[in-house]
Amino acid sequence: MLPLSEFLTFAGVGALAQLVDGALGMAYGVASATMLLGLGVPPVTATASVHQAEAFTCGASGVSHWLAGNVRWPLFWMLTVPGVVGAVAGAMVVVHVPAGWMRMALTPYLLGVGLFLLVRGVRNRPTGTDTPRGTPVLGLAAGFADAVAGGGWSALTVTTLVARGATPRTVIGTVHLAKCVVSVAASASFLYLVGLSHGAAVLGLIAGGVLAAPLGALFARRLPARVATVLAAIAVLGLGLNNVVKLMG
Hints:
The structure is a single chain. The chain has helices at residues 4-24, 28-38, 43-67, 73-93, 99-123, 135-149, 153-163, 168-194, 199-222, 225-248. The longest helix is centred in the last third of the chain and has 27 residues, at 168-194. The radius of gyration is 16 Å and the shape is globular. By secondary structure, it is an all-alpha fold.
């Protein structure tokens, strides 16, 4: 049985990660997976545990964004259907493909998109396009990468859609609601493949994330579009640089 202090630690991590994730559209999976790996949890188990927690936390966050008016349904369906396919496929191969390979592939992408977003946030305003071209392909790739690497759905979808001119607030809200469905698909696949592990830790992540979800949605609604874009750029650059450090270590 997980001690109360460790449960509260996971709950605190889940709350902080969900608050940042709700406001910027990314970071919950990455932060949670890093915590589990730091405690010695095997990569496959860590990835499965994060997705099992996200099935609940993303549901709370997605509903909060929906109620706050941050969701665009055409974009939701264009992301969700291929995202589910990608997540199931990723879960089926994650046992055989090292997560480090996916991190290596995502690092230059994250650095490049982060720099692009930073320049765009400083110089330009989003165009307000709700459904940029290529969104279904993006959902497929992001769902696969997220299942394999333990995170990346939000980083890939939010940054790419915002870079293509979509409004950050609606992108963040729609991506969160879509991620709920994709996480359920990935979680079900992992339950079938590796079973349920570290259940108490998952409960801590869920408790903290669900409590913080409404605050993240309200923060995203009140945050100016240009500020959200710059903050998303900084977050993506941070993820990319963190991957560089891990690859060099």
